[in-house]
Protein backbone atom coordinates (compact mmCIF):
# COMPACT_ATOMS: atom_id res chain seq x y z
CA UNK A 1 0.00 0.00 0.00
CA UNK A 2 1.33 3.48 -0.79
CA UNK A 3 0.08 6.93 0.12
CA UNK A 4 0.44 9.27 -2.86
CA UNK A 5 -1.43 12.55 -2.63
CA UNK A 6 -4.85 12.27 -1.11
CA UNK A 7 -5.80 8.82 -2.35
CA UNK A 8 -4.68 5.74 -0.48
CA UNK A 9 -3.60 3.17 -3.08
CA UNK A 10 -4.20 -0.43 -2.07
CA UNK A 11 -3.48 -3.72 -3.71
CA UNK A 12 -6.77 -4.69 -5.36
CA UNK A 13 -6.20 -8.38 -4.55
CA UNK A 14 -8.53 -9.29 -1.73
CA UNK A 15 -10.57 -6.12 -1.95
CA UNK A 16 -14.26 -6.86 -1.57
CA UNK A 17 -14.88 -4.81 -4.70
CA UNK A 18 -13.10 -7.35 -6.85
CA UNK A 19 -14.39 -10.52 -5.20
CA UNK A 20 -17.82 -10.40 -6.75
CA UNK A 21 -19.09 -8.69 -9.86
CA UNK A 22 -21.83 -6.96 -7.95
CA UNK A 23 -20.77 -5.03 -4.85
CA UNK A 24 -23.12 -5.31 -1.90
CA UNK A 25 -23.41 -1.54 -1.79
CA UNK A 26 -22.92 0.80 -4.73
CA UNK A 27 -23.87 4.12 -3.14
CA UNK A 28 -24.66 5.40 0.34
CA UNK A 29 -26.77 8.42 1.32
CA UNK A 30 -25.68 10.12 4.50
CA UNK A 31 -27.84 12.70 6.22
CA UNK A 32 -25.22 14.46 8.32
CA UNK A 33 -27.68 16.61 10.22
CA UNK A 34 -31.38 17.45 10.26
CA UNK A 35 -30.53 21.02 11.26
CA UNK A 36 -30.52 23.79 8.68
CA UNK A 37 -29.62 27.47 8.51
CA UNK A 38 -32.73 27.94 6.35
CA UNK A 39 -36.17 27.34 7.81
CA UNK A 40 -37.94 26.76 4.50
CA UNK A 41 -41.71 26.76 4.61
CA UNK A 42 -42.02 23.56 2.56
CA UNK A 43 -39.22 21.41 4.04
CA UNK A 44 -39.93 17.81 5.06
CA UNK A 45 -37.07 17.54 7.52
CA UNK A 46 -35.46 20.78 8.73
CA UNK A 47 -34.82 21.47 12.39
CA UNK A 48 -33.46 24.80 13.63
CA UNK A 49 -29.75 25.38 13.20
CA UNK A 50 -29.31 25.78 16.94
CA UNK A 51 -31.37 22.77 18.00
CA UNK A 52 -28.96 21.56 20.68
CA UNK A 53 -30.98 18.43 21.37
CA UNK A 54 -30.67 17.29 17.75
CA UNK A 55 -27.05 18.35 17.58
CA UNK A 56 -26.22 16.42 20.75
CA UNK A 57 -27.66 13.22 19.27
CA UNK A 58 -25.78 13.47 15.94
CA UNK A 59 -23.05 10.95 15.26
CA UNK A 60 -19.50 12.16 15.91
CA UNK A 61 -16.67 12.38 13.39
CA UNK A 62 -15.16 9.00 14.24
CA UNK A 63 -18.54 7.27 14.07
CA UNK A 64 -19.08 8.70 10.59
CA UNK A 65 -15.61 7.64 9.54
CA UNK A 66 -16.32 4.10 10.70
CA UNK A 67 -19.52 4.03 8.61
CA UNK A 68 -17.72 5.48 5.57
CA UNK A 69 -15.02 2.83 5.90
CA UNK A 70 -17.67 0.10 6.01
CA UNK A 71 -19.28 1.57 2.88
CA UNK A 72 -15.98 1.57 0.99
CA UNK A 73 -15.24 -1.99 2.13
CA UNK A 74 -18.63 -3.10 0.78
CA UNK A 75 -17.75 -1.65 -2.63
CA UNK A 76 -19.58 1.68 -2.56
CA UNK A 77 -18.41 4.00 -5.31
CA UNK A 78 -20.18 7.14 -4.16
CA UNK A 79 -21.61 8.87 -1.12
CA UNK A 80 -24.20 11.64 -1.01
CA UNK A 81 -23.94 14.07 1.89
CA UNK A 82 -27.25 15.71 2.57
CA UNK A 83 -29.24 17.12 5.48
CA UNK A 84 -30.61 19.50 6.71
CA UNK A 85 -27.62 21.52 5.64
CA UNK A 86 -24.52 19.29 5.74
CA UNK A 87 -22.15 22.27 5.74
CA UNK A 88 -23.38 23.11 9.26
CA UNK A 89 -21.16 20.30 10.51
CA UNK A 90 -17.79 21.66 11.68
CA UNK A 91 -16.18 18.42 10.52
CA UNK A 92 -17.63 18.51 7.00
CA UNK A 93 -14.27 19.15 5.28
CA UNK A 94 -12.66 16.35 7.27
CA UNK A 95 -15.42 13.87 6.40
CA UNK A 96 -15.34 14.95 2.75
CA UNK A 97 -11.62 14.40 2.46
CA UNK A 98 -11.87 11.11 4.31
CA UNK A 99 -14.49 9.91 1.83
CA UNK A 100 -12.42 10.94 -1.16
CA UNK A 101 -9.34 9.28 0.31
CA UNK A 102 -11.35 6.07 0.46
CA UNK A 103 -11.79 6.47 -3.29
CA UNK A 104 -15.51 7.25 -3.22
CA UNK A 105 -17.06 10.05 -5.27
CA UNK A 106 -19.14 12.62 -3.41
CA UNK A 107 -22.47 14.23 -4.17
CA UNK A 108 -23.21 17.19 -1.94
CA UNK A 109 -26.71 18.61 -1.47
CA UNK A 110 -26.41 22.13 -0.09
CA UNK A 111 -27.97 25.58 -0.10
CA UNK A 112 -24.41 26.95 -0.59
CA UNK A 113 -24.84 29.63 2.09
CA UNK A 114 -21.95 28.26 4.13
CA UNK A 115 -19.58 27.80 1.19
CA UNK A 116 -16.25 29.41 2.07
CA UNK A 117 -13.18 30.13 -0.09
CA UNK A 118 -11.36 27.38 1.84
CA UNK A 119 -14.08 24.81 1.14
CA UNK A 120 -14.35 25.80 -2.52
CA UNK A 121 -10.55 25.51 -2.79
CA UNK A 122 -10.80 22.02 -1.30
CA UNK A 123 -13.38 21.03 -3.96
CA UNK A 124 -11.13 22.49 -6.66
CA UNK A 125 -8.07 20.62 -5.41
CA UNK A 126 -9.77 17.33 -4.59
CA UNK A 127 -12.87 17.33 -6.85
CA UNK A 128 -15.99 15.53 -5.67
CA UNK A 129 -16.17 13.93 -9.16
CA UNK A 130 -19.94 14.39 -9.10
CA UNK A 131 -21.97 17.57 -9.36
CA UNK A 132 -22.69 19.55 -6.24
CA UNK A 133 -26.44 20.07 -6.14
CA UNK A 134 -27.48 23.52 -4.96
CA UNK A 135 -31.04 24.43 -3.97
CA UNK A 136 -32.39 27.72 -5.30
CA UNK A 137 -35.35 29.32 -3.53
CA UNK A 138 -35.60 32.59 -5.39
CA UNK A 139 -33.97 34.97 -7.79
CA UNK A 140 -34.00 37.91 -5.38
CA UNK A 141 -33.63 38.55 -1.68
CA UNK A 142 -37.33 39.20 -1.11
CA UNK A 143 -38.49 35.88 -2.59
CA UNK A 144 -35.57 33.71 -1.41
CA UNK A 145 -35.49 35.04 2.14
CA UNK A 146 -39.28 34.78 2.44
CA UNK A 147 -39.20 31.07 1.53
CA UNK A 148 -36.16 30.33 3.70
CA UNK A 149 -37.44 32.47 6.62
CA UNK A 150 -33.85 33.71 6.86
CA UNK A 151 -32.94 37.36 6.32
CA UNK A 152 -29.71 37.72 4.37
CA UNK A 153 -29.86 34.13 3.07
CA UNK A 154 -30.07 35.10 -0.61
CA UNK A 155 -26.87 37.16 -0.46
CA UNK A 156 -25.02 34.26 1.18
CA UNK A 157 -26.37 31.79 -1.39
CA UNK A 158 -25.17 33.96 -4.30
CA UNK A 159 -21.78 34.42 -2.67
CA UNK A 160 -21.47 30.65 -2.20
CA UNK A 161 -22.46 29.98 -5.79
CA UNK A 162 -19.93 32.53 -7.04
CA UNK A 163 -17.17 30.73 -5.15
CA UNK A 164 -18.03 27.57 -7.11
CA UNK A 165 -18.29 29.46 -10.40
CA UNK A 166 -14.94 31.19 -9.94
CA UNK A 167 -13.23 27.83 -9.48
CA UNK A 168 -15.25 26.13 -12.23
CA UNK A 169 -16.53 23.49 -9.84
CA UNK A 170 -19.42 21.67 -11.55
CA UNK A 171 -22.80 22.09 -9.89
CA UNK A 172 -26.46 21.57 -10.69
CA UNK A 173 -29.41 23.60 -9.48
CA UNK A 174 -32.79 22.55 -8.21
CA UNK A 175 -35.70 24.84 -7.42
CA UNK A 176 -39.21 24.57 -6.09
CA UNK A 177 -42.14 26.71 -7.12
CA UNK A 178 -43.80 28.38 -4.14
CA UNK A 179 -46.00 31.49 -3.83
CA UNK A 180 -43.10 33.94 -3.21
CA UNK A 181 -41.10 32.81 -6.27
CA UNK A 182 -43.69 31.50 -8.75
CA UNK A 183 -43.61 34.74 -10.77
CA UNK A 184 -39.83 34.34 -11.22
CA UNK A 185 -39.94 31.11 -13.18
CA UNK A 186 -39.03 32.67 -16.57
CA UNK A 187 -36.26 34.69 -14.97
CA UNK A 188 -34.89 31.56 -13.27
CA UNK A 189 -34.93 29.56 -16.49
CA UNK A 190 -33.24 32.39 -18.44
CA UNK A 191 -30.58 32.74 -15.74
CA UNK A 192 -29.84 29.02 -15.83
CA UNK A 193 -29.11 29.27 -19.55
CA UNK A 194 -26.36 31.79 -18.81
CA UNK A 195 -24.55 29.39 -16.47
CA UNK A 196 -21.94 26.85 -17.55
CA UNK A 197 -22.82 23.18 -17.81
CA UNK A 198 -25.85 23.23 -20.14
CA UNK A 199 -28.19 22.92 -17.19
CA UNK A 200 -31.90 22.21 -17.58
CA UNK A 201 -34.31 23.77 -15.08
CA UNK A 202 -35.38 21.22 -12.54
CA UNK A 203 -38.04 21.55 -9.87
CA UNK A 204 -39.16 19.60 -6.83
CA UNK A 205 -42.73 19.09 -7.92
CA UNK A 206 -44.40 17.07 -5.20
CA UNK A 207 -43.91 18.49 -1.74
CA UNK A 208 -43.56 15.74 0.85
CA UNK A 209 -45.04 15.86 4.30
CA UNK A 210 -42.69 15.73 7.27
CA UNK A 211 -41.06 12.34 7.00
CA UNK A 212 -40.66 12.08 10.78
CA UNK A 213 -44.35 12.88 11.24
CA UNK A 214 -43.14 15.39 13.82
CA UNK A 215 -45.00 18.57 12.92
CA UNK A 216 -48.72 18.44 11.96
CA UNK A 217 -48.88 22.25 11.79
CA UNK A 218 -46.08 22.31 9.24
CA UNK A 219 -47.82 19.56 7.25
CA UNK A 220 -50.87 21.80 6.98
CA UNK A 221 -48.64 24.55 5.55
CA UNK A 222 -47.02 22.10 3.12
CA UNK A 223 -50.45 20.93 1.98
CA UNK A 224 -51.47 24.51 1.21
CA UNK A 225 -48.24 25.11 -0.69
CA UNK A 226 -48.60 22.12 -2.98
CA UNK A 227 -49.31 22.84 -6.61
CA UNK A 228 -52.80 21.88 -7.68
CA UNK A 229 -52.69 18.49 -9.46
CA UNK A 230 -53.58 20.25 -12.75
CA UNK A 231 -50.62 22.63 -12.31
CA UNK A 232 -48.29 19.72 -11.54
CA UNK A 233 -49.45 18.07 -14.76
CA UNK A 234 -48.85 21.31 -16.70
CA UNK A 235 -45.29 21.47 -15.35
CA UNK A 236 -44.62 17.78 -16.00
CA UNK A 237 -45.81 18.09 -19.59
CA UNK A 238 -44.41 21.54 -20.37
CA UNK A 239 -42.13 19.99 -22.97
CA UNK A 240 -44.90 17.89 -24.47
CA UNK A 241 -42.86 16.04 -27.11
CA UNK A 242 -40.10 15.12 -24.64
CA UNK A 243 -42.63 14.00 -22.05
CA UNK A 244 -44.55 11.81 -24.51
CA UNK A 245 -41.33 10.31 -25.88
CA UNK A 246 -40.12 9.43 -22.39
CA UNK A 247 -43.50 7.99 -21.44
CA UNK A 248 -43.59 5.82 -24.57
CA UNK A 249 -40.51 3.90 -23.50
CA UNK A 250 -41.48 4.02 -19.85
CA UNK A 251 -45.01 2.71 -20.28
CA UNK A 252 -43.93 -0.46 -22.10
CA UNK A 253 -41.58 -1.40 -19.29
CA UNK A 254 -43.08 -0.07 -16.12
CA UNK A 255 -46.85 0.26 -16.42
CA UNK A 256 -48.57 -2.83 -15.03
CA UNK A 257 -50.41 -3.78 -11.84
CA UNK A 258 -47.81 -4.60 -9.20
CA UNK A 259 -49.88 -6.62 -6.74
CA UNK A 260 -49.51 -6.55 -2.98
CA UNK A 261 -45.72 -6.23 -2.83
CA UNK A 262 -44.85 -3.01 -1.07
CA UNK A 263 -41.32 -2.60 -2.36
CA UNK A 264 -41.01 -2.66 -6.11
CA UNK A 265 -38.52 0.19 -5.85
CA UNK A 266 -34.84 0.29 -4.90
CA UNK A 267 -35.46 0.76 -1.16
CA UNK A 268 -33.12 -1.37 0.93
CA UNK A 269 -30.51 -1.90 -1.79
CA UNK A 270 -28.33 1.06 -0.80
CA UNK A 271 -30.15 3.11 1.80
CA UNK A 272 -29.51 6.20 3.87
CA UNK A 273 -27.92 6.63 7.29
CA UNK A 274 -29.67 9.39 9.24
CA UNK A 275 -27.89 11.89 11.47
CA UNK A 276 -28.19 9.62 14.51
CA UNK A 277 -26.96 6.36 12.97
CA UNK A 278 -30.31 4.84 12.01
CA UNK A 279 -29.92 3.08 8.68
CA UNK A 280 -33.05 3.65 6.58
CA UNK A 281 -34.02 1.70 3.46
CA UNK A 282 -34.11 5.02 1.60
CA UNK A 283 -33.86 8.69 2.40
CA UNK A 284 -37.56 9.23 3.03
CA UNK A 285 -38.68 6.04 4.75
CA UNK A 286 -38.43 6.61 8.51
CA UNK A 287 -41.09 4.22 9.81
CA UNK A 288 -39.54 3.10 13.12
CA UNK A 289 -40.14 -0.60 12.30
CA UNK A 290 -38.25 -0.26 9.00
CA UNK A 291 -34.91 1.13 10.17
CA UNK A 292 -31.75 -0.55 11.43
CA UNK A 293 -29.79 0.84 14.37
CA UNK A 294 -26.12 0.91 13.40
CA UNK A 295 -25.05 1.18 17.03
CA UNK A 296 -25.99 -2.52 17.28
CA UNK A 297 -24.67 -3.74 13.95
CA UNK A 298 -23.18 -3.01 10.56
CA UNK A 299 -24.18 -1.84 7.12
CA UNK A 300 -23.49 -5.35 5.86
CA UNK A 301 -25.85 -6.99 8.37
CA UNK A 302 -28.59 -4.54 7.46
CA UNK A 303 -28.08 -5.10 3.73
CA UNK A 304 -27.88 -8.87 3.86
CA UNK A 305 -30.26 -9.78 6.70
CA UNK A 306 -32.58 -6.98 7.80
CA UNK A 307 -33.50 -5.06 4.64
CA UNK A 308 -34.22 -8.21 2.56
CA UNK A 309 -36.73 -9.18 5.27
CA UNK A 310 -38.31 -5.75 5.24
CA UNK A 311 -38.60 -5.93 1.45
CA UNK A 312 -40.76 -9.07 1.76
CA UNK A 313 -43.47 -7.08 3.51
CA UNK A 314 -46.85 -7.18 1.77
CA UNK A 315 -49.67 -4.67 1.78
CA UNK A 316 -52.69 -5.56 3.89
CA UNK A 317 -54.76 -2.38 3.85
CA UNK A 318 -58.01 -3.24 1.97
CA UNK A 319 -57.99 0.14 0.21
CA UNK A 320 -54.48 -0.55 -1.10
CA UNK A 321 -55.40 -4.07 -2.19
CA UNK A 322 -58.48 -2.84 -3.99
CA UNK A 323 -56.75 0.10 -5.66
CA UNK A 324 -52.92 0.30 -5.82
CA UNK A 325 -52.36 -3.46 -6.06
CA UNK A 326 -54.59 -3.60 -9.17
CA UNK A 327 -53.62 -0.26 -10.68
CA UNK A 328 -51.68 -0.35 -13.94
CA UNK A 329 -50.55 3.27 -13.44
CA UNK A 330 -48.60 2.31 -10.31
CA UNK A 331 -45.30 2.71 -12.18
CA UNK A 332 -45.87 6.39 -12.83
CA UNK A 333 -47.52 7.12 -9.50
CA UNK A 334 -45.37 8.41 -6.64
CA UNK A 335 -47.38 6.37 -4.14
CA UNK A 336 -44.97 4.30 -2.06
CA UNK A 337 -44.42 3.15 1.54
CA UNK A 338 -42.37 6.25 2.40
CA UNK A 339 -45.03 8.65 1.11
CA UNK A 340 -47.81 6.66 2.74
CA UNK A 341 -45.93 6.74 6.05
CA UNK A 342 -45.40 10.51 5.91
CA UNK A 343 -49.03 11.23 4.99
CA UNK A 344 -50.98 8.68 7.02
CA UNK A 345 -48.63 6.83 9.37
CA UNK A 346 -49.02 3.47 7.57
CA UNK A 347 -47.01 1.86 4.81
CA UNK A 348 -49.94 1.01 2.58
CA UNK A 349 -52.54 3.75 2.40
CA UNK A 350 -53.13 5.20 -1.09
CA UNK A 351 -52.01 8.85 -1.10
CA UNK A 352 -54.93 10.76 -2.61
CA UNK A 353 -52.86 13.72 -3.83
CA UNK A 354 -50.47 11.45 -5.70
CA UNK A 355 -53.36 9.34 -7.00
CA UNK A 356 -54.93 12.42 -8.57
CA UNK A 357 -51.70 13.40 -10.32
CA UNK A 358 -51.16 9.88 -11.66
CA UNK A 359 -54.72 9.76 -13.00
CA UNK A 360 -54.30 13.16 -14.67
CA UNK A 361 -51.18 11.83 -16.39
CA UNK A 362 -53.01 8.67 -17.44
CA UNK A 363 -55.78 10.79 -18.99
CA UNK A 364 -53.32 13.14 -20.66
CA UNK A 365 -51.66 10.15 -22.33
CA UNK A 366 -55.01 8.71 -23.38
CA UNK A 367 -54.56 5.59 -21.23
CA UNK A 368 -57.72 6.14 -19.21
CA UNK A 369 -61.00 7.89 -19.94
CA UNK A 370 -62.51 10.80 -18.07
CA UNK A 371 -64.04 9.46 -14.82
CA UNK A 372 -62.35 6.08 -15.17
CA UNK A 373 -60.14 4.76 -12.34
CA UNK A 374 -56.97 2.95 -13.33
CA UNK A 375 -57.56 0.00 -11.00
CA UNK A 376 -60.83 -0.79 -12.82
CA UNK A 377 -59.14 -1.15 -16.22
CA UNK A 378 -58.74 -4.74 -17.39
CA UNK A 379 -57.50 -4.18 -20.95
CA UNK A 380 -54.52 -2.11 -19.84
CA UNK A 381 -52.05 -4.05 -22.04
CA UNK A 382 -54.07 -3.24 -25.17
CA UNK A 383 -54.29 0.41 -24.17
CA UNK A 384 -50.53 0.65 -23.68
CA UNK A 385 -49.92 -1.01 -27.06
CA UNK A 386 -52.29 1.48 -28.71
CA UNK A 387 -50.55 4.39 -27.02
CA UNK A 388 -47.07 3.18 -28.00
CA UNK A 389 -48.19 2.53 -31.57
CA UNK A 390 -49.69 6.02 -31.83
CA UNK A 391 -46.50 7.63 -30.52
CA UNK A 392 -44.34 5.60 -32.92
CA UNK A 393 -46.53 6.60 -35.88
CA UNK A 394 -46.34 10.22 -34.81
CA UNK A 395 -42.54 10.03 -34.53
CA UNK A 396 -42.16 8.45 -37.98
CA UNK A 397 -44.45 11.11 -39.51
CA UNK A 398 -42.28 13.81 -37.97
CA UNK A 399 -39.15 12.17 -39.39
CA UNK A 400 -40.72 11.94 -42.89
CA UNK A 401 -41.78 15.59 -42.77
CA UNK A 402 -38.28 16.60 -41.64
CA UNK A 403 -36.79 14.55 -44.53
CA UNK A 404 -39.14 16.23 -47.02
CA UNK A 405 -38.21 19.69 -45.81
CA UNK A 406 -34.51 18.79 -45.80
CA UNK A 407 -34.26 19.33 -42.06
CA UNK A 408 -32.49 16.72 -40.03
CA UNK A 409 -34.80 15.30 -37.34
S1 LIG B 1 -39.08 7.06 -1.54
FE1 LIG B 1 -40.57 5.43 -1.85
S2 LIG B 1 -40.23 4.72 -3.96
FE2 LIG B 1 -38.42 5.85 -3.32
S3 LIG B 1 -37.03 4.30 -2.55
FE3 LIG B 1 -38.19 5.13 -0.80
S4 LIG B 1 -39.91 3.74 -0.54
FE4 LIG B 1 -39.07 3.38 -2.57
S1 LIG C 1 -52.74 6.00 -9.03
FE1 LIG C 1 -53.88 5.75 -7.12
S2 LIG C 1 -54.51 3.62 -7.13
FE2 LIG C 1 -52.87 3.84 -8.63
S3 LIG C 1 -51.00 3.37 -7.48
FE3 LIG C 1 -51.28 5.57 -7.38
S4 LIG C 1 -52.38 5.92 -5.46
FE4 LIG C 1 -52.59 3.75 -5.96
What is the mean pLDDT? 93
Q: CATH topology of the domain at 23-257 and 265-288, which one?
A: TIM Barrel
Global shape: globular
N-to-C SSE string, H for helix and E for strand = EEHEEEHHEHEHEHHEHHHHEEEHHHHH
Question: Can you characterise this structure?
Answer:
The protein is an alpha/beta fold and 409 residues long. The chain has a domain at 23-257 and 265-288: Aldolase class I (TIM Barrel). Helices cover 42% and strands 11% of the residues. It is built from 16 helices and 12 strands. The protein has an 8-stranded mixed beta sheet, covered by helices on one side. The longest helix has 25 residues, at 380-404. It starts with a strand and ends in a 5-residue tail after the last helix. One iron/sulfur cluster is lined by residues 323-324, 327, 329-330, 333, 335, 350-351, 354-355, 358-359, 374-375. Residues 323-324, 327, 329-330, 333, 335, 350-351, 354-355, 358-359, 374-375 line the site of one iron/sulfur cluster (SF4).
In short:
With 409 residues, the chain is an alpha/beta fold.
Task: Give keywords.
single chain, 409 residues, alpha/beta, 8-stranded mixed beta sheet, two-stranded antiparallel sheet, disordered N terminus, binds iron/sulfur cluster
Amino acid sequence: MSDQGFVLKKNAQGSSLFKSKQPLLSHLDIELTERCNNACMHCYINLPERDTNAQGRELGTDQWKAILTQAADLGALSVRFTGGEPLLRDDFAELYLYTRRLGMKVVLFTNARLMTPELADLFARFPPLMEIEVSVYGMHADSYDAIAYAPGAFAEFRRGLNLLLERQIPFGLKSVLLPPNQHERDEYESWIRTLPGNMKPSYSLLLDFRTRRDNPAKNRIIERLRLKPEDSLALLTRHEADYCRAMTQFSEKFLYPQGDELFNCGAGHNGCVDAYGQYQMCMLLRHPDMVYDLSNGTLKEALTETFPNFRQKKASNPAYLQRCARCFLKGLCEQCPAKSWAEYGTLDTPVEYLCQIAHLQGRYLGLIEEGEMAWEVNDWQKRIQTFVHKMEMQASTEISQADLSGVKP
